[in-house]
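Notes, Module 5: Reading structure tokens.

Key idea: the token line is not a picture. It is a compressed description, and you learn to read it the same way you learned to read a sequence, by spotting repeated patterns. We will look at two proteins. The first is printed below with its tokens.
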Amino acid sequence: MEFHVKDLNLADEGKKRIEWAEMDMPVLRKEIRKRFMEEKPLKGIRIGACLHVTTETANLMRTLKEGGAEVYLCASNPLSTQDDVAAALVKHYNIPVFAIKGEDEETYYIHIEEVLKRRPNITMDDGADLISTLHMKHRELIPEVIGGTEETTTGVIRLRAMAKDGALTYPVIAVNEALTKHLFDNRYGTGQSTIDGILRATNRLIAGSTFVVAGYGWCGKGVAMRVKGMGADVIVTEVDPIKAIEAKMDGFRVMTMLEAAKIGDFFCTVTGNIHVIREEHFKVMKDGAIVCNSGHFNVEIDIPALEKLAIKKERIRPFVDEYTLDDGRRIYLLAEGRLVNLAAAEGHPASVMDMSFANQALSAEYLVKEGKNLEPNVYTVPEHIDRSVAELKLKSMGIEIDQLTPEQVEYLNSWEMGT
């Protein structure tokens, strides 16, 4: 088996951490994996996955393999790989992994190429780098692809652009748009893990600080909610007037980034867009401002502009780079502008990823059954899968909910019954 990981000697520690995460992923472990082991719905299918190599992802890979698939995994971000997990997947679960934490950009794309060499029938993306590389450099593989899945907001934006341009050649399910994904993973997962990453990197107090959140989508809502609960004065910046009003009515201050840049202590971007924090913002930031990103790619912060403004750069602690400007002000960039929750911490808690990866596994099964009937486009997760994941999660939590009575069903289906 070919693979490329940092050190196989880390495998035993990684296995313990995978098993620890598995305990908090009952939907994937008890409900889906058990059925997959019996039915083998993915038998004969090659799955190429470009995802964050974490303990939770490891349990998804195990589930897909138990379903009969050949699984190949590479990292979807150079800093998000957990090296012990990568080693454990190779040594203990015989799953080829091509990922090393801190790999340079060249190695990152070499690893994507390694997965594509296996000629996947289904692609699984977290940011759309695998599918975009396939379309740009390996179009000969397209006839063998049934379909794909995409986990992130950023990736879905890219895929919709591909579909709009007529460049997308096979169907892709936007797992990110499942209600049981973005309402929980994006909000509660990103909210908690982003703060975890900031605290691990800086050990700074959130309470009493001014915390600027750029973007008020579900990820931004989660971050803003969490730092507010920790005692921060939260400012939200937005380009969408509806989201801006929502942030205001949720109790946050709303202003432009140029205004916020003058008073913020912490800055976190979660927009999925490019250069949200730019040169004009760095020029007015306070001495000691801490800047980070929790969007998928490291483009939300204009790092080249910061490099240009700085007369000195020094790494003063893991994941913290100090940029000194010509007037003596210091700006601190966390995790090289990459996903702070995965680079400086461990990513989302297993419990919330349980639902996200349940959607991934069931969407792969759906593509095997229905992919040939779908046009090249971006699709939402079928409603029956989304609701099934919610029902399974409630069941695993020991929660029962009411069912509609026949009278209620009749009432909802009737237009004659009024006041």
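Here is the second protein, with the sequence above and the tokens below, as before.
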Amino acid sequence: MAQDYYATLGVERTAAADEIKKAYRRLARQLHPDVNDAPDAADRFKEVTTAYEVLSDPAKRQLFDRGGDPMGGARGGAGFGQGFSFDDIMDAFFGQNGGGGRQQRSRVQRGQDALLRLDVDLAEAVFGVTHDIKVDTAVVCERCDGSGASEGSAPVTCTTCRGQGAVQHVQRSLLGDIRTSRPCPTCHGYGSVIPEPCPECDGEGRVRSRRSLTLDIPAGVDHGTRIQLAGEGEVGPGGGPPGDLYIEINVARHPVYSRKGDHLMCHVTIPMTAAALGTTLDLPTLRADLAGHEGSDTLSVDIEPGVQSGQVVTVRGEGVPRLRGVGQGDLQVTVVVETPSKLDGDQRELIHQLAALRGEQRPEARLGTTHRSVFGRMKDAFRAGVNDER
């Protein structure tokens, strides 16, 4: 009995090509011997493959609809070895063109992204600056305008693959002859060849060139920040659209200031007399590092009397502008109190007098910043014992 190809695929005789293809993909996934170990899976797989080969070919389908035998009497699975394409199996499992290489490649392709690292000073990163940079990338060949062909010539259809970009290879297997597509070795999958390549770019449609760009670095960038310049990367093969250029910022160390997030930090050393009495410091600003800056070169910072070594004095709004937000961070000044190591006679006498006035000739040792002295704790314990006796 002749095979009913429509019944094999489970579609109506009026089914469209897309419906037939979907039905075949569904059945192929279920019946392929690699995923189905049922005893009749291989035979049923051959049947649905033969049915698809007939119904996907308009001429064979028309002949079958008229009662003819499009497989020349080789129904019931023999058609699998009579021109079956392995790409159809790959389509069933991976979607259209899953087998790869069946569609010709385009000579015009998007270019790659490029990365350039740029060293900037801390002041430039904080306040922003404009830089002129040099970039070495591929650009469109002006001689052939990206076509890759010399003047007066043009790409021609490849005679090996006849413009398909792929050639067929047949391999015998237990399931029959399997036909696979591979990129054409002559045109490398393009479907055309350039008989007379442009002497400037050797058929690539692009050449390498150094060019200048003006880069606006926004205020608040940090070490490792990447700035994207759309369309300034490598031009693609065949004069294709360029990729993007990324500028990675490398912030150099500063002799005075460091950065933590949106805050600027520095350390200042003051004598113990200034720490005790308080003082006002004039710190150099980062703006002084910028050429042609406007405004004061110094910033006044008030140190309150009695400041301790290691204490942080915060100056609001004098930090780094927020790159993605409003406002800016703070300036955090860490105070280091310096104790004099050399005293003359008069200085030593004055300090002795100060110690006597403060009752600090024999000061009690303090353990850490939150612990009371040993003698203080002994006094507390003694007082507690006396109270208990009462």
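Summary for the second protein:
- Residues 110-149+202-253 form a domain with the HSP40/DNAj peptide-binding domain fold (CATH 2.60.260.20).
- DSSP finds nine helices and 15 strands in the chain.
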